[in-house]
Every structure is written in structure tokens, then in C-alpha cells.
């Protein structure tokens, strides 16, 4: 994964801009692999993946159509099929980001509540990088190009809700090294893409 993400950065730096159009495919593959390597019963993985995507989509649909939750923003065409103004890929991204954050904290000896809080903090930290990448490459746009504080507060709250489901219902045996690697690798990819 690290190799292919780095290869994407190099290609984009060389002027092969088609790379950015592969964003939906890359996110889809990374999410599928992260769920695949999740050490939890298959049924739990399916139910929790659907739950995370559904929560992400519902919150985003309310948010993009009201401006009350995250702020005033809209999605561009790059992320594909939209449901009430929100690309389905955004719900999938909520799954990927929260699950990877949960895998990272699962390597710690923290208690369950502390893990949920730290994982939610990691989700927000990731969004700090994601927002810069997404706006630079027109995945979405904010009114007046201003990202409000409530966006990050909402990311924390929604992240905490989704991660709580993982904490109590996944029946995860051991953390996934693959899953834990996704968040830092994606953040590094976005950062490098901002540089080039």
C-alpha cells in the first residue's frame, strides 16, 4: 500500500494527473482490505461496517443540506455517486478512518473509554490533513473557504459514536497491523500530494 501510494505521488509530480481520479478506487480498496484484515467475526465486521457507513452518511446528508452540523460545504463530482448531495464514498471513508483509528489504539493498554477518546482524537487529527487535501483538489469546498471549528468538533463526536460500536460489539481478538497502518499512510499521502 505504501509503495502504490508513493507511486501515485511520483506520477502526479511528473504531470500524470489521472492519479487524482483514482481516489474513489483507492479508498474503496483500502477500506475493503482494512475490513478484511479486521480480526473480528465476519458477521460482526459486516454489521459494524454497515453501521459506520450508515452513521457517516446520515450525518453528512444532514450536514451538507443544512449547514448546521459541520458548516456550509458542498461536494464536487470527483467522489462519484451521490445520495442527497453526499457521495457514497464519504460514508465508506468514515468506516476506513474510524476503523484504522480503532486499530491504532487497540495496540495500547488503555481502558475502553480512554481508547474511544484517543481514537476520536486521531480521527480529528487525520481530518486536519484531509481537509487541506480535499479542498486543494476540489473533493469538496467550504463557503468562503473557511473551515469552521464545529467541523472538527463534529468529527470528534461522530468518530466517538462509531468507535464506540467497535469497542463494544466487534469482539475483536487482536489489533490489525494493516488497519493501524492505513491512517498514517493516508495522512502521509495527502501531505505529500499537497507538497507536489
Write the layout of secondary structure elements.
Layout: H1 2-13, H2 23-36, H3 42-66, E1 73-75, E2 82-83, E3 86-87, H4 88-106, H5 112-136, E4 140-142, H6 149-169, H7 177-195
Antiparallel strand pairs: 1-4, 2-3
Write structural notes for this entry.
The protein has 196 residues and is mainly α. Helices cover 69% and strands 5% of the residues. It is built from seven helices and four strands; from the N terminus they run H-H-H-E-E-E-H-H-E-H-H. A two-stranded antiparallel ribbon has the order 1-4. A two-stranded antiparallel ribbon has the order 2-3. A hairpin with a 2-residue loop joins strand 2 (82-83) and strand 3. Helix 4 packs across helix 5, helix 4 (88-106) packs across helix 7 (177-195) and helix 5 (112-136) packs parallel to helix 7.
Pick out its properties.
single chain; 196 residues; two-stranded antiparallel ribbon; 4 strands
H/E series:
HHHEEEHHEHH
User: What is the averaged pLDDT score?
Assistant: 96
Shape: globular
Sequence stretches where pLDDT stays below 50 over 5 or more residues: none
Evaluate the radius of gyration.
Answer: 16 Å
The biggest beta sheet, please? Answer: 2 strands, antiparallel
Percent in helix: 55-70%
Distance between the termini: 19 Å
Going across the biggest sheet, name each strand in turn: 1-4
Number of helices: 7
The number of distinct β-strands equals 4
User: Structural class per helix/strand content?
Assistant: mainly alpha
The proportion of strand residues reads 5-15%
